[in-house]
């Protein structure tokens, strides 16, 4: 197909997203007063606890089977590579620009965690129904596209609510420590000790007198004042070999606690439950399908999940309006994040997917290849904003990043979608 024809096909889904997010932006203005600051937080929590897990479960239980999980083995690896390359680029940006320490995790998370679920569930099926779509029969294309997008959404959520979640939580801990330290500095003035006294206290320990069993005179280590002076350098300290097993044990315990906490996140629970129902045929037949005895459970959860996508896109518009305000992020940081997300990562994605295809590691379906490529192209995940609000750190900075990345995502998604289809069908 001609490049310009593919460009028209690729632009229509993006226009739909712009219309819905534009409505959310209008509702968030002070003139409408619908999505206020408190409303955004409350709706974020509802989406986090109810809508997103329901969407995960309903999509995976209905569209993913055990055979699909085996044949799509390359998609988890591809999602891992998007996070790996994005994290590397984010780390480079942090080292170059040196933002405030508590914003390091925010920058890296926005570089590595992409919106692999909501946007794909809108873009991919919409491409199938566009006139002149190169992906074949619209009904078959839509069914496969929803399956690919659902699996991508589930995988993206696993990585987002583990790695990106830990980054935001670490940023929150650093921010809390900084705020606590600043509060102490405001309440307690700095105390300047005398130089000699300070040095003495750093080098000696003063221990109360212990009665000597050797006579009336003080012992060699006993001073005339009745105090025993011991050099701190003579005290026994555990060697590095003795301390190493304890540090490893503490690190493993901390990692296990972190993983356990992340597994308890509602979206992660929805992903695990959806995989179990979809991959186990007896359970799937019990819940999914028109003749399933417990189909009311699936129907109810699907009804809840249907509210996730429009709700998240509306909130996207609300976050974009907040992004018009100032933040502590320098413009250079935002420019570098945009370059990483919309220039470097898509080029990396083309080489990765085409290389895997040439090696015969991917299924023959071009729509599957397209989904793998577009995973490198999507803007930052809106769930990062949800996490920022939950942990009360970097909300304003995330809003500014979202504003500029989603503003340019309309151009980037249209352009790269056209390039991907041209590569696959030329």
Question: Structural class of the secondary structure composition?
Answer: mainly alpha
What is the count of structural domains? 1
Q: Spell the H/E element sequence.
A: HHHHHHHHEEHHHHHHHHH
Q: How do the strands of the widest beta sheet line up side by side?
A: 1-2
Query: How many beta-strand runs?
Result: 2
**What is the CATH-assigned architecture?**
Up-down Bundle
The top-level CATH class is Mainly Alpha
Calculate the terminal CA-CA distance, rounded to whole Å. 7 Å
- Global geometry: globular
Mean pLDDT: 77
Low-confidence stretches: 204-235
Indicate the CATH topology.
Na+/H+ antiporter like fold
Count of helical stretches: 17
Task: Describe this structure as you would to a colleague.
A two-stranded antiparallel ribbon has the order 1-2. Helix 1 (3-27) runs antiparallel to helix 17 (395-425), helix 2 (37-63) packs antiparallel against helix 7 (138-187) and helix 2 packs parallel to helix 10. The chain is an all-alpha fold. It is built from 17 helices and two strands. It has one domain: Na+/H+ antiporter like fold. The chain is 73% helix and 2% strand. The model is unreliable at 204-235 (pLDDT under 50). The chain has helices spanning 3-27, 37-63, 66-71, 74-97, 104-112, 118-129, 138-187, 195-203, 240-263, 266-279, 281-287, 295-305, 308-322, 331-358, 366-374, 383-391, 395-425, and strands at 204-207, 228-231.
